[in-house]
Amino acid sequence: MIVRKQQPVDYDAIRHVYAEAFRRPRFRPPQEPGAVPPEVGVFDALGEAGDAIPELSFTALADGDVVGHVTASRATVADDPVVAVGPIGVLPDRQGTGIGSALMDAVLAAADAAEVPLVVLLGAPEYYSRFGFRPAQELGVISPEAEWGDAFQARALSAYTDSVAGPFRYAPAFSP
Known about the structure:
Largest sheet: 9 strands, mixed
Order of helices and strands: EHHEEEHEHEEEE
Helix content: 10-25%
Distance between the termini: 35 Å
């Protein structure tokens, strides 16, 4: 497997990864035939708005085929620029093989090298805690939705200071 920065040629394959990864019933009730999971729309909208950060978004390839992807996008905590991670997806037949972990490691290392102070995501605490994420409220980051609770997580990077606190805002693509 190879993990590399997202390239424009990956676009259709990335959409396919998200469509397949999030079509599975373990994430939500079964969809109508032909329905596209919302994560595909978020990926499209982030790109169209210029809020995706291609230099911090990564594609996983196996045998030359795209098998996974992580999207990084612009976000803020109060007035401080930070990075939101998501969607992140791996083709169903490749899940559980370390691809998702490799993608997370890549985006976190690149964000740290780019002196991003904080990375935020919404996901399962039992999974993302292995990457150093913890409930965002512990870092003074206020969730846009109180009901997200501990699933709204943040990871401080090398450039972090405790002045990076306050209300969190995703890019507009995340709004319904």
